[in-house]
Design a protein that fits this description.
167 residues, globular, disordered C terminus, Lxx211020-like, Secreted protein, signal, PCuAC_sf, LpqE-like
Length: 167
């Protein structure tokens, strides 16, 4: 291949990639544009992890599938659930498959239930502050949200060290 053809191919690929925006569903809407995250908040902490809560509401006519999240305040973010462990103790674990919200439906992220776990925090989160989180959906689209940091005692779950790196 001649260098002119090679550079033309590179320019064509660059143009094609720059034309790519947020992936769309068949009707032209992305999952991120078909969902709201209502009343997001995070639990204040001095430790290396905390949780983000709120309500996901699907506003479109298709399922919305949350598969992950990121935050500049955390080394990693995972979708978690609370499950009844041995001896009846509630324990936190990664939620396999993420969260699916049906069309017109909602899914609450709440203490003692499903939540986003911010792990390996880069600094303490103080009440009254904010934390930025970007939700990631199955179609590759993302939704940035700002969660208010609040004091909260806990949701009766076990936060000791375990195979998920807690503690």
């Amino acid at each position: 291949m001649s260098s002119k053809k090679f550079y033309a191919l590179i320019l064509l690929l660059a143009a094609a990639l720059s034309a790519c925006g947020t992936p769309a569903q068949e009707d032209g809407t992305s999952m991120a544009s078909s969902v709201t995250f209502e009343s997001p908040w995070a639990r204040a902490t001095d430790s290396a992890m905390t949780a983000v809560f709120g309500t996901l509401a699907a506003t479109g006519d298709r399922d919305v599938h949350l598969v992950g999240a990121t935050s500049p305040a955390a080394g990693r973010v995972e979708i978690h659930e609370i499950a009844r462990g041995a001896g009846g103790v509630n324990t936190m674990q990664a939620k396999a498959g993420g969260i699916t919200v049906p069309p017109g439906g909602s899914h609450e992220l709440a203490p003692g239930g499903d939540h986003l776990m911010l792990m390996e925090l880069t600094a303490p989160l103080r009440p009254g502050g904010d934390v930025e989180v970007t939700l990631a959906f199955e179609d590759g689209s993302t939704l940035p949200v700002t969660a208010q940091v609040r004091d909260f005692a806990g949701g009766d779950e076990e936060y000791s060290g375990d195979r998920h790196g807690h503690g």
